[in-house]
TrEMBL record:
Name of the protein described by the UniProt record: Peptide chain release factor 3
Compartment annotation: Cytoplasm
GO biological process: regulation of translational termination
NCBIfam families cross-referenced by the UniProt entry: prfC (TIGR00503), PRK00741.1 (NF001964), small_GTP (TIGR00231)
InterPro entries, sorted: EF-G-like_DII (IPR053905), EFG_III/V (IPR035647), G_TR_CS (IPR031157), P-loop_NTPase (IPR027417), PrfC (IPR004548), RF3_C (IPR032090), RF3_dom_3_sf (IPR038467), Small_GTP-bd (IPR005225)
An annotated GO cellular component: cytosol
Reported function: Increases the formation of ribosomal termination complexes and stimulates activities of RF-1 and RF-2. It binds guanine nucleotides and has strong preference for UGA stop codons. It may interact directly with the ribosome. The stimulation of RF-1 and RF-2 is significantly reduced by GTP and GDP, but not by GMP.
Keyword tags: Cytoplasm, GTP-binding, Nucleotide-binding, Protein biosynthesis
Location, primary (coarse class): cytoplasm
Cross-referenced Gene3D superfamilies: P-loop containing nucleotide triphosphate hydrolases, Peptide chain release factor 3, domain III, Translation factors
Gene: prfC
Pfam families, alphabetized: EF-G_D2 (PF22042), GTP_EFTU (PF00009), RF3_C (PF16658)
Binding residues for GTP: 19-26, 87-91, 141-144
Alphabetized CDD domains for the sequence: RF3_III (cd16259)
């Protein structure tokens, strides 16, 4: 059995696309799904009008903003392998959710706009990939538009992210003169015709008479010159180094025109790692382990506003999962039979009869499962590394109707379980403080408390600008600190102490004054 599990795991690629908004992630996703036959017609991922509302606009705010706030999973097949693409919300305010999604992938594609290079959000997401040694394949998009110099883009990636860059193809022209890409490894030309097409490569030695049609003379000379320079300037592709996260192979194309997308997916198939051993306590978990294990990286509540059910997204880390199986929730000791696990195929959901390491299943539940939970067939294994991030905005929750205090506490707790917000209970004082990573997250929170729980609340500024989790090996120093700083302390929802600073200077001072304490911006669950 375990060889079958290993074989199935080996045939899986679980990945995400990271990018700055507008770089072309949605367009690329669409084209990848088309290539995998998961959708028949382009335009469905970001369908507009009625279609779009029917599928994903289950939240008012989503309609108003026209953005996707849900992290979905899309599964498709290509060349005998199963690809699980975890869609990460592109809006910068949803970073916490996005970061957590990255804990469930084995690799990532980084999409860059050829005209803009590395942008703020790309850099942030990249940092998380680096923390987790997630290997990255780079796709420079929008080559059909005027962009920056190719060397400039490659050097920017190398410098900004401290990564070796290895161009795998070399673009010929750009913008109006974009003629395609020369594959430096396979030594073939993939002509760009301007049509929407994945492109048909032509072997270099066969180019002969066709050449002038494909590449006008001056561009051909430039290509020879640049390709030569590139060979000297950049290292050779090294699979180990890519998988360790030190090097990124770079592809160029136009997602809008499907161009270069096949080369990119082929690269994911060929180079990107299959599910590997996952960090856990007390031992790492190998995908080929015969027993099923996994962790919840996202919980989505109220997908159907009429029902208070939630979907917990679980990544399978080992074993062969079968529908109906009983799994134990580590920590609470509860067990649950998973009768209706869901798999996500583009816009469709289907019951998952079985799932393998690397797959993501959705588990409907009534609030039992939380982000960060480990599930196993019985062994006491806890997956590590799913972070909470220090909030950048802290607000006090003002309740209009004091009789609803209990309701509010429930609502906040379940929204915190989903990772929509962080909830802090100040050591002194009665009202909750919510922490979010961005302003939009606050609006989502407000709208959901009103819509889904029927409670009218407002937010008031709290006198704090940032928060840090406090830990220490020195119990006496910890106690001393907790006793002396009650006015600035709160408990997070797991009861862990958090120091809330009134300004950045205060944060610095408190750290200096308490060398035996650790103040961290993330906390692993
Ligand atoms: P995102 O998910 O990363 O935010 O980006 P998205 O795919 O929505 O693309 C952002 C805009 O860039 C879209 O145009 C899209 O059509 C365009 N785009 C994506 N890839 C390419 C490409 O390879 N070449 C060119 N020229 N454009 C590209 P829009 O006008 O903002 O949206 P829409 O009305 O076309 O949907």
């Amino acid at each position: 059995m375990s060889s079958e599990i290993a074989k199935q795991a080996e045939a899986r690629r679980t990945f995400a696309i990271i990018s700055h908004p507008d770089a072309g992630k949605t367009t690329l996703t669409e084209k990848l799904l088309l290539l995998g036959g998961a959708i028949r017609m382009a335009g469905q991922v970001k369908a507009k009008g009625e279609n779009r509302r029917a599928h994903s606009d289950w939240m008012k705010i989503e309609q108003a903003r026209g953005i996707s706030v849900t992290t979905s999973v899309m599964t498709f097949e290509y060349e005998g392998a199963t690809f699980n693409l975890l869609d990460t919300p592109g809006h910068e305010d949803f970073s916490e959710d996005t970061y957590r999604t990255l804990t469930a992938v084995d690799s990532a594609i980084m999409v860059i706009d050829a005209a803009k290079g590395i942008e703020a959000q790309t850099r942030k997401l990249f940092e998380v990939c680096r923390l987790r040694d997630i290997p990255i394949i780079t796709f420079v998009n929008k080559m059909d538009r005027e962009g920056r110099e190719v060397f400039e883009i490659l050097d920017e990636v190398a410098e900004a992210l401290a990564l070796d860059t290895v161009p795998m193809v070399w673009p010929v022209g750009g913008g109006g003169t974009f003629k395609g890409c020369y594959d430096l490894v396979r030594e073939e030309m993939i002509p760009f015709t301007g049509e929407d097409s994945y492109g048909t490569p032509v072997k270099a030695e066969l180019l002969g008479d066709e050449l002038p049609n494909l590449i006008p003379g001056d561009l051909y000379d430039t290509l020879l010159e640049e390709a030569d320079l590139a060979m000297d300037a950049y290292p050779d592709f090294d699979l180990e180094s890519y998988r360790e996260g030190h090097l990124t192979p770079v592809y160029f194309g136009s997602a809008l025109k499907s161009f270069g997308v096949k080369q990119l997916l082929d690269a994911v198939l060929q180079f990107a790692p299959a599910p590997k051993a996952q960090p856990a306590e007390p031992r790492e978990v190998e995908p080929s382990d015969s027993k099923v294990s996994g962790f919840v990286f996202k919980v989505q509540a109220n997908m159907d506003p009429k029902h208070r059910d939630r979907i917990a997204f679980m990544r399978i880390c080992s074993g062969k999962f079968k529908r109906g199986m009983k799994l134990h929730q580590i920590g609470t000791g509860k067990s649950m039979s998973i009768h209706n696990p869901i798999m996500f195929f583009a816009q469709n959901r289907e019951l998952a009869e079985e799932a393998w390491p690397g797959d993501i299943i959705g588990i409907p539940n009534h609030g039992t499962l939380r982000v960060g939970d480990s599930m196993t067939e019985g062994e006491n294994i806890r997956f590590s590394g799913i972070p909470s991030f220090a909030p950048e905005i802290l607000q006090r929750v003002r309740l209009d109707d004091p009789l609803k205090a209990k309701h509010l506490s429930k609502a906040l707790e379940s929204l915190a379980e989903e990772g929509v917000t962080q909830v802090f209970r100040p050591v002194i004082g009665a009202s909750y403080i919510v922490g979010v990573v961005g302003q939009l997250q606050l609006e989502v929170l407000l709208s959901r408390i009103e819509q889904e729980y029927g409670i009218n609340v407002g937010f008031e500024s709290a006198p704090f600008v940032t928060a840090r989790w406090v830990t220490s090996d020195d119990a006496a120093a910890m106690k001393h600190f907790l006793d002396r700083n009650k006015g600035s302390l709160a408990d997070d929802r797991d009861g862990c102490p958090v120091y809330m600073a009134r300004n950045h200077w205060d944060m610095g001072r408190i750290q200096e004054d308490n060398p035996k304490l650790n103040f961290t911006a993330t906390r692993e669950r």
